[in-house]
């Protein structure tokens, strides 16, 4: 699973940057409040002013059942709140949910080949807690560090000699910031259970009392959670790789055409995948698959219906993916969807030319 996510971010461009905005300009009646809430000198300390409290309420209203007030109240003073926006925060929560892992202890000698993409490590003896994201390309990690305003990005070598990068923090204040961000905001049941165990461990080793918030958040097409979640085991499949070959006609001639689907694969996430399916107005059942040589079962949602694909396209254009390779994959997928809907006909020659054209997109997208 590590290698799969690493491939999705391995070519992230240095110039690629997506800045999100907390507030929509169309809300004229909030204009004065927004201007004051985005002042750089505002510390966003909970209870510091009526304006700040209203800004928190407005932010939460915009994100349905996600709550960021406790997290925003503890942002580092140098962080500009318009960068640490609700879109980024919901993306980040989805990203963590897709590939998260919660360990019970901190182990410096752990085999680097087995390090998950995202993990929490707790060492009760040293009273140490660490949060870490490891992957091959550092650009998304730098985006996370810059936007949150804390943590470090460093490189390390795996046993095979490949260089990877990790974002991490073990500073108590930063760990508590992350706990406040995730508390009550996870959607997957398995992540909720893991977080509750983590919270109990943190309270014990640091002698704290942090109330667990209710888990009210749900998948939605009105925030970036699904975009972050799709940075994990989601993909945009097309038959580009085999030159759009679709078999043979009855007379033996080769047939060429377009086939594409959007998919998400997760374990122990059936109810969430069904909710996502319903958001895109698909009706198909989930598939059960096994990855690699393991016997572990995974559920897979596949969306191939043209009308549902249109909703997928609209969503990811509104809430873009941050990793360059997956973003390129989506752009190719969107274009192939357009070719199919326009009824473009393919021959062996035109299929090869189109493949070359689509593969060249990687060079033009930063």
Automatic annotation (TrEMBL):
Pfam families referenced in this protein's UniProt entry, alphabetically: LAGLIDADG_1 (PF00961)
Domain Homing endonuclease LAGLIDADG: 93-198, 226-337
Name of the coding gene: orf367
Superkingdom as given in the UniProt entry: Eukaryota
Keywords linked to the UniProt accession: Chloroplast, Endonuclease, Hydrolase, Nuclease, Plastid
PANTHER family: INTRON-ENCODED ENDONUCLEASE AI3-RELATED (PTHR36181), LAGLIDADG ENDONUCLEASE (PTHR36181:SF4)
Protein name listed in UniProt: Putative site-specific DNA endonuclease
GO cellular component: mitochondrion
GO molecular function: endonuclease activity
Provenance organism: Uronema confervicola
């Amino acid at each position: 699973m590590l290698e799969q996510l690493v491939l999705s971010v391995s070519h992230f461009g240095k110039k690629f940057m997506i800045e999100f905005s907390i507030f929509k300009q169309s809300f004229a009646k909030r204009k004065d409040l927004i201007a004051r809430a985005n002042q750089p000198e505002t510390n966003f300390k909970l209870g510091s002013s009526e304006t700040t409290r209203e800004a928190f309420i407005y932010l939460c209203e915009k994100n349905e059942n996600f709550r960021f007030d406790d997290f925003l109240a503890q942002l580092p003073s140098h962080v500009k709140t318009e960068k640490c926006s609700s879109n980024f925060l919901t993306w980040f929560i989805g990203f963590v949910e897709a590939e998260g892992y919660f360990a019970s202890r901190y182990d410096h000698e752990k085999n680097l080949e087995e390090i998950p993409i995202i993990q929490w490590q707790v060492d009760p003896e040293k009273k140490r807690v660490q949060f870490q994201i490891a992957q091959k390309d550092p650009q998304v990690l730098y985006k996370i560090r810059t936007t949150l305003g804390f943590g470090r990005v460093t490189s390390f070598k795996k046993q095979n000699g490949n260089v990877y990068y990790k974002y991490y923090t073990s500073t108590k204040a930063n760990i508590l910031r992350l706990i406040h961000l995730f508390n009550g905001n996870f959607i997957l049941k398995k992540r909720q259970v893991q977080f509750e165990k983590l919270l109990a461990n943190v309270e014990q080793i640091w002698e704290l009392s942090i109330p667990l918030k209710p888990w009210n958040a749900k998948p939605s097409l009105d925030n970036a959670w699904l975009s972050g979640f799709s940075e994990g085991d989601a993909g945009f499949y097309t038959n580009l790789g085999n030159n759009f070959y679709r078999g043979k006609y009855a007379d033996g001639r080769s047939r060429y055409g377009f086939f594409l689907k959007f998919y998400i694969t997760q374990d122990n996430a059936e109810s969430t995948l069904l909710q996502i399916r319903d958001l895109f107005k698909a009706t198909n059942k989930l598939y059960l698959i096994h990855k690699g040589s393991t016997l572990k079962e995974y559920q897979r949602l596949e969306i191939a219906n043209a009308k549902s694909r249109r909703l997928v396209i609209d969503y990811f254009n509104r809430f873009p993916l941050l990793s360059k390779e997956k973003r390129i994959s989506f752009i190719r997928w969107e274009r192939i969807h357009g070719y199919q809907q326009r009824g473009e006909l393919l021959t062996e020659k035109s299929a090869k030319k189109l493949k070359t054209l689509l593969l060249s997109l990687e060079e033009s997208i930063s």
